[in-house]
Amino acid sequence: MYRQAGPDALAGYRARRDELFQTHPSSPIPEADRAAFRGLRYYPPDPGARVTARLLPAGDEPPLVIATGGEDGDIVYRRAGVLHFELGGTACRLTVFAMTTYGGGLFLPFRDATAGAETYGAGRYLFDTVKNTDGLCLEVVPGSDEVVIDFNYAYNPSCAYDSRWACPLAPPENRLTIPVRAGEMDFHTG
């Protein structure tokens, strides 16, 4: 997987994402709307949205089954671990899921206090490794239980753009009570 580094990494990521949304045949932007598409809406970059988290083992809870409402049917997730971190002075936790179906990989959906007003109402994703969306938002700290997560890379699921897409959404355990004003904003402006 290609990883861009340096001070322009986030701007480069956003520019490539906008280009893919306008030109890729599988873009979630409806084909009839792509000619008028001028890019996604993002919060300004926030260095405080890049945090170090402790990744601790998940408990022995049963798998989480999420119905997509679409052709994919039910997707089964195993809790792979729990991230503990502080964001804006508030202690937070998010569960990282491992998909046991749909290609495997790690998945982190979340919803925060901006949902429905500034960001997509059902929540956003921080990463979905089966789709190579971890980019620079997930870095492992070798030899420790720490990882660095960067909410500047938070993005909307495909269903935020077109109802033809069905997306697994953030479960109750991944709902933050604080606003996360980093990453992608709601696509619809009005």
Question: Could you characterize what this model shows?
Answer:
The protein has 190 residues and is mainly beta. The termini are far apart. The chain is 8% helix and 28% strand. It has one domain (9-174). It has one helix spanning 9-23; strands at residues 50-56, 64-67, 74-87, 90-99, 106-110, 124-128, 138-140, 146-150. The chain is built from 1 helix and 8 strands; from the N terminus they run αββββββββ.
Features:
190 residues, eight-stranded antiparallel β-sheet
Secondary-structure element order, N to C: HEEEEEEEE
**Cα Rg:** 16 Å
Alpha-carbon distance between the two ends:
36 Å
Number of helices: 1
Overall pLDDT: 86
Topology of this structure?
Elements: H1 9-23, E1 50-56, E2 64-67, E3 74-87, E4 90-99, E5 106-110, E6 124-128, E7 138-140, E8 146-150
Antiparallel strand pairs: 1-3, 1-8, 2-3, 3-4, 4-5, 5-6, 7-8
Can you give me a brief rundown of this structure?
With 190 residues, the chain is mainly beta.
